[in-house]
Design brief:
350 residues, Na+/H+ antiporter like fold, 75% helix
Length: 350
């Protein structure tokens, strides 16, 4: 009983510290406060060696709320617009993988590591998915997980702040109707997301608890059915849950064990992010689509984090989400094939 109470107390304190960080960041006007505040606060506390944890299902709950909120923005005109631009999305996803290859060769050279570890560290996929792939092809999962986490941290802490400082906000592209919150219909909306998220999770689909609720809400929205909106407070809570869970990735023991890998991983991450940002600017100039939204669309961050950023900055949320979804599917589907047929025989760096 004492052990259970202690675990509960630690979980409550962790979320409390994350929420406090979000409140402080919001108070001083930091962009994306309810995500960055918990992420950096919990990450810093975790690096001190404190025993921290969040309740089981915290990240999934945050993704359920966020995915549902984002999905409600997919009206029929938005869906048709996204379908018209699917070619650009596929090309951008392949380009992002190409930039990942460039970063991987840089990481292999600077970290003196094997190509499997370098490649799966830099290809912009999920932390879990790329770690598993690395082990499958003879790489090390620890460095891959660290590099992938650093990638998300780098994107989330630089691009939103940079766009805000440049005043690159308020490019919604789509006219989105605000759906009022309906306490009677809201549970049904969440139930739809819960069923779809759970179903995709059972099928081991990546980002299941984001994709399922998003798909369910988008389907309802494109059909013109307005069950309920999601209060801003719940979306803030979703960010605290996601940010706090992300912060837990930065464990002191892992950082100490891989301390010589951190600097090369950071350099390759900056190269990867920089190439994608330049690519987003170029595509925006060539297509006439909002450049700020395209930077987020091609940024190698997590889908949830980029969607939150787009929403907070008033950018084209559905466009950003669509680009990120296409990239995730393509990376997960072909990253292993690319390695097996093009990189497996590449000699190690001496």
């Amino acid at each position: 009983m004492n052990l259970k109470f202690r675990c509960f107390s630690i979980q409550l304190a962790t979320l409390g510290a994350g929420a406090l960080g979000g409140w402080a960041f919001n108070l001083i006007g930091v962009p994306l406060p309810w995500l960055l505040g918990p992420l950096l606060t919990i990450g810093a506390l975790s690096l001190t060696g404190l025993s921290l944890s969040t309740p089981w299902g915290s990240r999934q709950t945050g993704q359920l709320l966020l995915g549902t909120g984002i999905g409600l923005k997919f009206t029929l005109p938005v869906a048709l617009f996204v379908a018209d631009h699917i070619g650009i999305m596929v090309f951008s996803a392949l380009a992002s993988m190409g930039f990942g290859l460039v970063a991987a060769f840089l990481l292999q050279r600077t970290a003196r590591t094997d190509i499997a570890t370098a490649y799966f560290s830099c290809v912009p996929g999920g932390v879990a998915e790329m770690s598993v792939q690395a082990e499958r092809y003879g790489g090390e999962s620890g460095p891959v997980a660290l590099a992938q986490s650093l990638r998300v941290l780098c994107v989330v802490t630089t691009i939103p702040i940079g766009l805000t400082w440049l005043g690159a906000t308020g490019e919604p592209l789509f006219q989105i109707n605000r759906i009022p919150f309906d306490p009677a219909s809201f549970p049904l909306l969440l139930l739809i997301g819960l069923v779809l998220g759970g179903g995709l999770a059972r099928l081991r689909v990546g980002n299941a608890w984001m994709m399922g609720p998003l798909a369910g809400a988008a389907l309802i929205s494109t059909m013109g059915i307005n069950l309920s909106g999601i209060p801003c407070e719940l979306l803030n809570i979703s960010q605290v849950l996601i940010g706090s869970t992300l912060g837990l990735r930065y464990r002191r023991e892992m950082m100490l064990r891989l301390k010589f890998f951190i600097a090369p991983a950071a350099i390759s991450t900056l190269a990867l992010v920089g190439l994608n940002v330049l690519f987003g600017i170029t595509v925006g100039m060539m297509t006439g689509l909002p450049i700020s939204s395209l930077i987020l669309s091609v940024a190698p961050g997590g889908m949830a984090e980029m969607a939150i950023t787009a929403k907070v900055l008033g950018l084209a949320v559905p466009l950003v989400v669509a680009f990120q979804i296409v990239r995730i599917f393509i990376v997960i589907a072909i990253s292993g094939l690319v390695f097996r047929h093009a990189l497996r025989r590449r000699p190690p760096m001496n």
